[in-house]
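Exercise 7. Predict the joint structure of the components listed below.
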Amino acid sequence: MTAPRAIVNVPAKARKGEIIAISALIGHVMENGFRYTTTGVLRPRDIITSFVALYNGEEIFSAQFFPAVAANPFISFHTVATESGTIQLRWTGDNGFAATHRAKIAVE
Amino acid sequence: MNAARLFVFIAAFLAVANPPARADDIPLAERRSGYDQMSAALKAMQDDDTANPGMLWVLEGEALWSAKATTAGKACADCHGDGTESMKGVAARHPAYDEKRGQVVNLAGRIEACRVERQGLAPLGPDAKESLALAAYVARQSRNLPITIDEKALATTIAAGRQLFIARQGHLDLSCAHCHEANWGRKLAGLPLSQGHTTGYPLYRLEWQSLGSLYRRLRACLFGMRAAYYPPGATEYLALETYLMWRARGLPMESPAVRP
Amino acid sequence: MTMAPRTEHDTAGRRAFLRFATAFAAVVAVFAPRRSPANEVPPQLQAGSRSSPRPLTPAEIQAAVHRVTGGAKVTPGRVKLDLPPIVENGNSVHCTVTVQSPMTPADYVKSVHIFTERNPQPNVIGVRLGPRAGLAKFSARIRLADTQKVTAIAEMSDGTFWSDRAEIVVTGGACLEDT
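Solution:
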């Protein structure tokens, strides 16, 4: 099975101390657990429950997703560019869902 | 040749050579994509490639483009090279007339034919995940290019599609034209009716929470009109698609579009 | 006017009627559709229709808020919840929250939580921030089942809670339909 597709926008370069915006879009059905098929069968819940952003290993942002987060979840947030390194984004959820995306940032 | 036969011959010739008069068509200069009627938030969602959910399928298609198919071991890239170059304009000129096959083929059909005949893969239909991903990837390469349909080669199919477009059908006795020609801009169930131009397929529809094909959208329309679906693979879908793309000629492609 | 005397004929007729009514009721009871798991109405639809889900009770919303605030006072202000006033479809609504805060280690926004009133459940998203954020501002795409008010509550590093509310008209609701 291929990794879920994700589109992550992290600036490649930033000045030290600059506040940068990071956005992340990941493919996921986010089945909310409240929908029924036309024959009355409940579609079981299948959502991403957690999103964590690490900057060189330290958490800079995290979110708990509930079923009210839209399908193919999009999130954007801010962080201070402190040093060059790796920004790691990690999504986890129901049915053992896990996805990780890493982006490099150069801070001068 | 007797008079009756001559009459039939002339009528047939005129029908094929001159598609039926279009007195009630939207004037070319007044045609608008459904994009114009969307809220600023949805326009922004479509315009930003890092935020447009349809781009997830384009990414998937890009991966499939380079993936070796198991049976024949060939990837799309092996014949077509860099898709961002070789596929420019392809979606904007489909449906097209395939000389070799002697039939009209749309983009999804062209992609499927390649996968079946040259890659040895099983046919999946236009709504399968792989089909949508490849269609999205190829169509994305025509973004902003004007739709160009070969009117002469496709005249019969365009005419057939137009007949379907203006025909009343279903329990509500409505035709496509009732909403999309006579009442575009007015509200239906709280949302403005578009002119129905197919500039952005395959597109991400919020109601589907997924990317979907034009055929899925046509079935949704038929459902709304309380009309029977044409069977899967029916020529009606292709005729309608051909007519709709011809009707949208000159408008820029937007794929993958976002719509409510 | 005097009542007509009861005749034997009347009594016989009443008895026949009662017998018939009892038999009819028994037949109805035997053949009436039973409540089975397949056709039980799910709780979130019971007091509403498919297109207008029942609003959450104030108790349910308060319980969700209480899990975040622990009962502490929530003051309107310092938080700005940006939602479009009207959306075509509630399946993906762009939502931005901005909180006034210097975001220094001494004074920053710890977390932000978004709640709804007419979705099947009150929580939408809970976000953890900190001084590394630089700016207490984030965006997400959320689902809204119906026209309603949405609330954002922010917890500050000093333990205080602040909020903002926004009203939004949702033309096509999310969460329950499956097209």
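Discussion. The radius of gyration of chain B is 19 Å.
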